[in-house]
Structures are given as structure tokens and as C-alpha cells.
Amino acid sequence: MFVKVPISAALLTPLRNAYYLSFPVVLGAVLSNRMAARLSDVVPVHWATPIVLALVVWMIYTIDRLLDVQKVTPASSSSRLTPRHAFHRQHATDLWRGVLAAALLALILCFFLPGSVIRFGLALGAVCAGYVFMVFRLPNRHSALLLKEPLVAVLFSAGVWGSVWVQRPTVSGVEITQALMFTVIAFQNLILFSVMEQWERPEQPQFSLATAWGLERSITLLGWLTLGVVSTGLTLCFITSDRFAQRASLMLAIMSLVLYVIQRFPAYFLRNERYRWLGDGVFWLPALVL
């Protein structure tokens, strides 16, 4: 006679912690950056670029959440904090130390980067610092916070693609179009998460574009974004003869379609926050064409 033993929670802890620490997003940024680098083989991309990108992406996401939990009063923390934010509050001291260590390592690696990347990084870093400061200083439901989703999508995409472009003598129209597709996918990802959070916690939805526009309009927007990315990806396959560019265009279209599927079946993907795992996991898909 066999007894069914449930999987120990301890076995899931490392994986869950990696998810809370935004490691899937960081890995997705690195893989997407590698795809952007392969679209043009004029000059090899510097080896330190993806490492610094990973460190910076992790620091931005971590600092953003650490500042978020500081704005929540202890009396209301149990009802307002998501599991990920609760994790950041519980380990705030260690995470701040990790941020300082990551910043120091990124600073050291900057001495190995080309000057063009350093200048680009300083400019983008200043914008990111301004964004984090704005989010922390503004009240929770300030209208300026509605810019969060599009701004994060643009900054994330700029880091992934811009760090490659500044090391290139020229950038093709196909690359620019694919970067715009990637930006739309990043925006689609954030809007999707806002919609799913409303379904997940209808009594206390996070203030976002999705709450401001309403679920019906947000869902319609997700459909149009998917249509735009897929149609653009298919069009690029016919107007470029570069085989890797064709594969990258199809992969970007698939990434958008995966996000659309998540939105179409909320009951399934809301369980155990599956939408977050797969939604962040779409940025791993470029690995399939590398």
C-alpha cells in the first residue's frame, strides 16, 4: 500500500524565493539582450554588458519594492502587501545590503565597458533614479503614477536594446521595429499583471492604468497590442531576408501570444500566481532562437 506524500514546502522555497527576488525578470532581460546583440554581428558586444544589465535590472526591481513596502503602514500591511512585497519587508535589511553589493560590483565592471555604454548607462540610470524617487515621494493614488507601466516598459526595453545599439555603428530599421515590438510586449506584460491583480484581489486593487481604465477597456487593449505585435512580426518575416531576424520576429510574436493566452484563461492562471511565473517567463523565450 502506497501513501501519497505531499511535496515539502521546503523544496519549493528556493524556487519561490528566486521568483520573489525577480530573478526570472533578470534572466529574461539577459536573454533578450543576447537576442538583440545577435541581430547585428558588426562588432562583438562587450562581455560585461549583460552582467551589468542583470545587476541594474535586479537593483531597480528590488529598490522599487523595498520603497513600496515602506509606504505601507504596519497596521494595514497584512491586507495590502502581496506575498512578494511581504518577502521584501521581511528581508529588507539583507536586500539593501544586496543592492549595495550589486551596485559596487556594477561600478567595478563599468571600468571594463566601452565609453559609449558608460555614457548610455549614466543617462538611463539618471532617468531610472528619477522614476524611483517619483514613485516613492508621490501619494499612493497620484495621477502621475499612471505613467508607471509605460515608463517601466520603455526603461526596461531601453536597457535591453540600447546597451547593444550604442556599441554598433548603425542600427537597421528591422532592429528598431523589433525593439518597438519588445517594448509593446513589456507594456502588455505589465497591463496583464494589473488586470490579473484586479481579478485576484478585487477588494483592494493596486492603483494602475488598468484600474483607471477599467477591466473591459484594459482587456480590449491587450487584444489590440497582441494583434499589433503578431501582425508586425509576420510582416517582418516577409520584408527581411535575414534568417535570424525572421526567427526573432516570430519569437516576439509568440511572446505576445503567450501573454494573450494568460489573459484569456484567468481562472487557471490565477492559481498559485501562475500568471506571474509564465508572464515573466515569456522573456526567456528568446533563448529558443539563440
From TrEMBL:
This is UbiA prenyltransferase. Keywords: Membrane, Transmembrane, Transmembrane helix. The chain crosses the membrane at residues 42-61, 95-114, 120-138, 150-167, 179-199, 219-241, 247-270.
